[in-house]
Hints:
Blueprint: E1 3-19, E2 24-37, H1 47-50, H2 70-80, H3 102-115
Antiparallel strand pairs: 1-2
Amino acid sequence: MNIKSITKAPTDVQTYFYAAHKDVCRKAHELLFIIELADGEQRATSEENTKNHNYRRVDSKEVEGLINTMGHTALLEYYLYPKANTEKGTLINSGTFSGLSSEEAIQAMQTWLKEQGIG
């Protein structure tokens, strides 16, 4: 196996779209997984894994021209152009501050900065 890591984006998107080829509206629950290869080399894919789906490896910037739903667009933007969340809420991926509310985290960070002599 040539996979170094598989990371699920901490968000998902549910969207509706029109499938013109079937003349129906569909709902999609979309997830983003980033797969990092151990050595950067893609291995041949078995027929079993490709019998129902076609796929190919593309550069991350090329993906923008291939996506077909708003959900895909939102997830791709999250991956390609990460931004800090500036809304109030509960902190995640924030080390010792994870799990704190915004207000609690501000106080805890101010205390930490003072303890370090930099605040």
